[in-house]
Each structure stands twice: as structure tokens, then as C-alpha cells.
Amino acid sequence: AQKVTQAQTEISVVEKEDVTLDCVYETRDTTYYLFWYKQPPSGELVFLIRRNSFDEQNEISGRYSWNFQKSTSSFNFTITASQVVDSAVYFCALKVQGGSEKLVFGKGTKLTVNP
Amino acid sequence: NAGVTQTPKFRVLKTGQSMTLLCAQDMNHEYMYWYRQDPGMGLRLIHYSVGEGTTAKGEVPDGYNVSRLKKQNFLLGLESAAPSQTSVYFCASSGEGGYGYTFGSGTRLTVV
């Protein structure tokens, strides 16, 4: 069975601080995909990144970066120089190859960035 | 290109009433899903479909039924609504390999 754990329920930081959101996953499959989504207060789900299990290169997109480590089954997300607009709930999700293509979500981390 | 459209966006039901949530996608995706989101629980899969005419149970299927008569539409039905079904419902669709995984904007349902 697949499982995603986001141990941090809520995080509060002051603007311009760096913040890392943790994601640990469990699967016995060798081919899988990891995702991060952002859910702002407006409620929609915003896709941030998709990573497959064979690509362990870190990804950087502007102030966002992702650290994928298969050895620790982690896919952590770092926001550099956080801004108030980064305040949202962030979800990590896992999909295994083939079958239903369904996503298994973590419970989410609520990030609050204070001015 | 609308992507995934959910209707309605908001609904209040009385206990025991029935309703149908409609999900429509225009991306020719084979796979469609219904998730529910509850505070502190993340998104949990209710039912899904791997193609027209197919449906399957997800993690929390009790109290819901679904149908996929047309490839572009995936309907979620509540036959007899209960307060425990108060939630935000998200529909999603995807292609092979999870490419193009797209979510609708959500339906906020309150059962009183």
C-alpha cells in the first residue's frame, strides 16, 4: 500500500524567512511519481511539481526548490525568502505506475507567512 | 480550454435528500476521480474511473455512487445525504502515467 506522511501540520514564519515542508512516502513500487500541490485560501488546487522515481535531481523554480532523496523516501519542498502570498496549505502526493493512476495525498501542511 | 468543470460550486442539503455532482473534462482524459477533502485529512479518493463505462471504489466509497456514461463526464451521487458527507468535493482527470493531472475548482457541500 502507498502512504504519504506530512508530519508538519502547521508552520508559521515571518516574511523573508526560508521554510522547508517535509514529505515522506511509502511504496513498494519501483516506478512512481511524486507531486506537490498548493491550496491557497481561495480553495483551488494548484499544481507545483511532478517528479518520477528515476529522476533524483533537485529542482529549482524561482523561490521554490525540491529535494528528492530515494534513500530516505523523502521529497521535501523549500520556499526561499517566503512571502505573504505563499500562505496556503501544501499537499504532497504519490502515484504509482500503472493501474488507476490515482493520487495518494498526505494530510497537508498549513503554512502561514506573517508580514 | 476549460479543463475540469464541476457543478454546482456550493450546495446545502437536508439530511436524507439526494443530489448529483457533475464533473466534465474537455481534455479527452481516460481517467477521472472524485476526492473529498476534510479538515486535517487531506484528499481522500471516493470513486474513480479508468475509462468510459467503468467505475471502481476508492478509499471512502460508502454512501456514494458514480457513473461514467460518457468519457467526458463523471457523476457523483448521494442517494441519502448525511451530515458526515459535509465536505469539499474535488473532481480530477488525468491521462496515462498521470500526465496532465487536473483538478476542478471544488464543490462545497453542507448537509444539515
As an assembly, this protein is heterodimer
Largest pleated sheet of chain A = 6 strands, mixed
- Name the overall outline of chain A: globular
Tally the helices of chain A: 0
Given helix and strand content, the structural type of chain B is: mainly beta
Strand content of chain A: over 45%
List descriptors:
heterodimer; A: 115 residues; mainly beta; 6-stranded mixed sheet; 53% strand; globular; B: 112 residues; 7-stranded mixed sheet; 4-stranded antiparallel sheet; 52% strand
Please provide a brief summary of the model.
The complex is a heterodimer of chains A (115) and B (112). Chain A has 115 residues and is mainly beta.
Task: Record the SSE blueprint.
The complex is a heterodimer of chains A (115) and B (112).
Chain A: E1 3-5, E2 10-14, E3 19-21, E4 24-26, E5 32-39, E6 46-52, E7 59-61, E8 64-69, E9 74-79, E10 88-96, E11 104-105, E12 109-114
Parallel strand pairs in A: 2-12
Antiparallel strand pairs in A: 1-4, 3-9, 5-6, 5-10, 7-8, 8-9, 10-11, 10-12
Chain B: E1 4-7, E2 10-13, E3 19-25, E4 31-38, E5 42-49, E6 56-57, E7 64-67, E8 73-78, E9 87-94, E10 102-103, E11 107-111
Parallel strand pairs in B: 2-11
Antiparallel strand pairs in B: 1-3, 3-8, 4-5, 4-9, 5-6, 7-8, 9-10, 9-11
Explain what you see.
The complex is a heterodimer of chains A (about 120) and B (about 110). By secondary structure, chain A is mainly beta. Helices cover about 0% and strands about 55% of the residues of chain A. Chain A contains no helices and twelve strands. Chain A has strands at about 5, 10-15, 20, 25, 30-40, 45-50, 60, 65-70, 75-80, 90-95, 105, 110-115. In chain A, strands 2, 5, 6, 10, 11 and 12 form a six-stranded mixed beta sheet that branches. In chain A, strands 3-9-8-7 form a four-stranded antiparallel beta sheet, with no helix packed on it. A two-stranded antiparallel sheet of chain A has the order 1-4. In chain A, a hairpin with a 6-residue loop joins strand 5 (about 30-40) and strand 6 (about 45-50). The model of chain A has no long low-confidence stretch (mean pLDDT about 95). With about 110 residues, chain B is mostly beta strands. In chain B, a hairpin with a 6-residue loop joins strand 5 (about 40-50) and strand 6 (about 55). In chain B, strands 2, 4, 5, 6, 9, 10 and 11 form a seven-stranded mixed beta sheet that branches. The radius of gyration of chain B is 13 Å and the shape is globular. Chain B is built from no helices and eleven strands. At the A-B interface, strand 5, strand 10 and strand 11 of A face strand 4, strand 5, strand 9 and strand 10 of B.
